[in-house]
Amino acid sequence: MSDLLEKLDLSQLENVKYIYELKAKFNQELAEFHSKVKPPAKNGHVNYRTKAGQKKYDYVRLEDLIKSIDEALKGTGLTWNQDSEVKNGAIRVRTSLLSSDGYEQVGSWLEIKTSGDPQSIGSALTYAKRYSLGTAFGINSETDDDGQQSQKTNARTNAKATAPKSQASRPQAQAQPQPNNPDPLISQPQLRLVNDKLTKLSQAKGTNADTEAQHYLAMVHLTKLEDLTSSQAIMLVSHLDKDIKQAEANRPRQQAPKQSSDDLDAWLNNRGVTTHA
């Protein structure tokens, strides 16, 4: 359904409202999930040596993460799925969340290069699936024993893992996974629609469109319409429609000027009709 949504003409107000309603339902279901989810235990462990000494890397196993997520999803209407690809020794994974009304949030690809042997590929796939799934739902799936983030980053980069034989070394990601961006910046069709609404509102109120724009931007602590997100633009259009309707209802109606009797006499005399007092 995401392909169909991308083809919608966002210059049409009904399409903008439709997407807004879909996303609102998705956010409601995701909020319900977060209210129910219980952090899974970090039952996976990897010990490794650094110049500073022995370190321990703890993480949530993929099966425990899935169990925790699936349990919290019950009754929310949300579901999830993952796509994975293996090509030339590199793997990539992405996670998508699907709402009950059809709205889909597709995550970014996480790509990891491996040595190409089956064990390395399998380990990389497991790690990527766990990281991508945890990121999609906002669940932290890894930590270390001392909780110092900077030391953790340096240690994982430079140290060799001394995991049990059944646990392959943690693969090196080609690039850090980009956080999901479910709310991109305002599109050009949306920007044109917002500007049209601001013009109509300013005309109805007898004000300036730029002044009206700054009034709304101040509410979200922005200075330019181009900095609005897509969902903010949708809400702004809905808000502007209400304000336009209210402004037009409050605008005084212009009454036709009353004709005096002298004007009527002059009009009749010009047409050869004699009037008498």
Summarize this entry quickly.
This protein has 9 helices and 7 strands.
Provide a descriptive summary of the structure in words:
Pfam families: ERF. InterPro entries: ERF_bacteria_virus. This is ERF family protein. By secondary structure, this protein is α+β, with helices and mostly antiparallel strands. Among the domains are: 29-158; 188-250, no CATH class. The protein has nine helices and seven strands. Strands 3, 4, 5 and 6 form a four-stranded antiparallel β-sheet that branches. A hairpin with a 2-residue loop joins strand 1 and strand 2 (53-59). Helix 2 packs across helix 8 (230-250), helix 3 (62-73) runs parallel beside helix 4 and helix 6 crosses helix 7 (209-219). The longest helix has 24 residues, at 13-36. The termini are far apart. Mean pLDDT is 75; it is low at 144-182.
What secondary-structure arrangement, pairings included, does this model have?
Layout: H1 2-6, H2 13-36, E1 44-50, E2 53-59, H3 62-73, E3 79-87, E4 90-98, E5 104-106, E6 110-113, H4 118-137, E7 142-144, H5 149-158, H6 188-205, H7 209-219, H8 230-250, H9 261-269
Antiparallel strand pairs: 1-2, 2-7, 3-4, 4-5, 4-6
Structural features:
single chain, 47% helix, three-stranded antiparallel sheet, 9 helices, four-stranded antiparallel sheet, alpha+beta, 7 strands
**pLDDT < 50 runs, ≥5 residues:** 144-182
* Computed CA radius of gyration, to the nearest angstrom: 31 Å
Give the strand content: 15-25%
Percent helix:
40-55%
Largest sheet: 4 strands, antiparallel
What is the total tally of β strands? 7
The count of helical stretches stands at: 9
- Distance between the amino and carboxyl termini: 79 Å
Q: Give the overall shape.
A: elongated
Computed structural class = alpha+beta
* Rounded average pLDDT: 75
> What oligomeric state do these chains adopt?
single chain
SSE sequence, one letter per element? HHEEHEEEEHEHHHHH
Pfam families: ERF
InterPro entries: ERF_bacteria_virus (IPR007499)
Organism: Pediococcus acidilactici
Protein name: ERF family protein
